[in-house]
Amino acid sequence: MTAPRTGRIPLVDPEALLTGGVRRARPLRSLLHLLHPHRWGMTAAVVAFVIKDSAVWVLPPVTAAIVDIVVAGGPLDRILWWALVALGVLTLNYPFNMIVVRLTSSANRTLAYTVRAGLAARLQRLSLGFHNRQSASVVQTKIVRDVENLELMLAQVFPTVVSALSTLAGAILITALNVPLFVAVFAVAIPIAASLIVYIRRRAALRNEEFRREVEQLSAQVSEMAALMPITRGHGLEDVATARVAARADSVRRAGRDLDLLNGRFGALSWISYQVLGLLCLAGSATLAVTGIAPISPGQVVLLSTYFGMLTNAIVMLMNAAPVFTRGLDAMRSIADVAEELDVEDSRGKEEVRAVFGEIRLDGVVVTYPGDDRPALDGVDLEIPPGRTVAFVGPSGSGKSTILNTVLGFVRPVSGRVLVDGVDIAGLDLRSLRRFVSIVPQETVLLAGSVRENVAYGAADVTDADVYEALAEANALDIVSGSPDGLDTLVGERGSRLSGGQRQRLAIARALLRHPRILVLDEATSALDPHSEARVTEALDRARRGRTTLIVAHRLSTVRSADLIVVVERGRVVETGTHEELVAAGGLYSRLALVQSGG
């Protein structure tokens, strides 16, 4: 599968740029920080935009001059000369417009790439605890919708602001040269307009954030509905699921309606206000000309009226862009939530792991989850020699999976140590350590691609022979042997074209392709029927030979052959031994075995 063409990407670390200056409390400064690599291009775009837009504020003086010539009955050659000036200014629009488009598009699209790539990199370094707390759909919204709002803000606000400011500067300059008295009118109108814009932005900011949060919650609920579809259909709960999403959609509707009403109310009032000011400007300048209070020619009356109309139009455009600007800043705050998240698994500067033998030791490990009254692991001591198979059993919530997550470095102990080959993993580059680890989870996650893509996921320089070897070792050759497409056989969305046992064996093949020294099996057979379980168990027995294997299982039938069985209860190791030793001891394991055997 080939990567999409992205063109030339600036040599900047997206994550470093994102985390180096993006702060929720300062969204505008954060945006300027992200645009810093494009500062010279954006400066050139501003200059080109002013030249491109110069006709807007150059044509009114030309019009005024021609009106005065007509009133005075002046010569035609002067009219022709002014017409040529106007034509020359107009011809500048096309080439400089293309310069603006090229420069702003490059900055805008590259900024979107940088933020998305930076968010993806940041999310990969955040701990599993963060991802367990955060809905996947909310994260998706940040990468897709929030970045789209940033792009929209830059695409709409930049030309509006630059056009308004250049028009304002040109109008004031030419007015000061022709009718200095009227500069005072602009001096009064501009602060009023600026105050209106600030007021609207403050009022709209809260509504925009409320609307964004409602959309995020709707996205999370839709994702939940999709995940629960088999349960919903199986229990005939379609109306319930529809009602839940509809209720959230109604909340989005009401939040969006309130936001639209607020924007519409201020938009209408501001438009009326500035039209009244424009009318007063026209009447005032005409009165000065007629009464002779100020030496204003008919052309200058047209000039002042046109400029004031342009000024009010620019201000209305700025106010119309204010909601887009507010949404963009709110998106910047949302993105900053990820950039400022401190729950990071950072391996930079730590010792890189180049080889693993597979010895594991837990030394007084205590793990406490936020909000829990008691520790998930309470002083766990355990030693696992390399190449041994150790199974963890116990009641639900006893801490079995927490032990695995602690060994893998997904969960950090508040006290105690986890050592691999005698080295505390707190000082190791965990990414390099995990290159020697493979995990087969309870819920198999497959790509919506081919068998080859799923087995070879993330592995470099893999041949078809390697894939076939992994499939054979995982007892999964039947997935491709009966298909004319072979390794190109599609597995469907989330492996929908495969049975549960086939999905699990495909996951085992993916794990074995990496040739791990440590194999982690988390409830790998719990959801399978007896026939599928037998085939998967056979594959697992073959897979764990010569490897340190950690197994979590509720079915004791899958752990009988383990070298060591560790019984966990309330975060403590209460029993250790082989199956026969623990049954003979008459403890918790013996009682669990008795219950599962139906005795």
From TrEMBL:
Subcellular location: Cell membrane
One Gene Ontology cellular component annotation held by this UniProt entry: plasma membrane
Coiled coil regions, renumbered to chain: 201-228
All residue ranges annotated as the ABC transporter domain in the record: 360-595
Keywords for the protein's UniProt record, in alphabetical order: ATP-binding, Cell membrane, Coiled coil, Membrane, Nucleotide-binding, Transmembrane, Transmembrane helix, Transport
Record-linked PANTHER family: ATP-BINDING CASSETTE SUB-FAMILY B (PTHR24221), ATP-BINDING CASSETTE SUB-FAMILY B MEMBER 6 (PTHR24221:SF654)
Family that this chain belongs to: Belongs to the ABC transporter superfamily. Lipid exporter (TC 3.A.1.106) family.
Protein name in the entry: ABC transporter ATP-binding protein
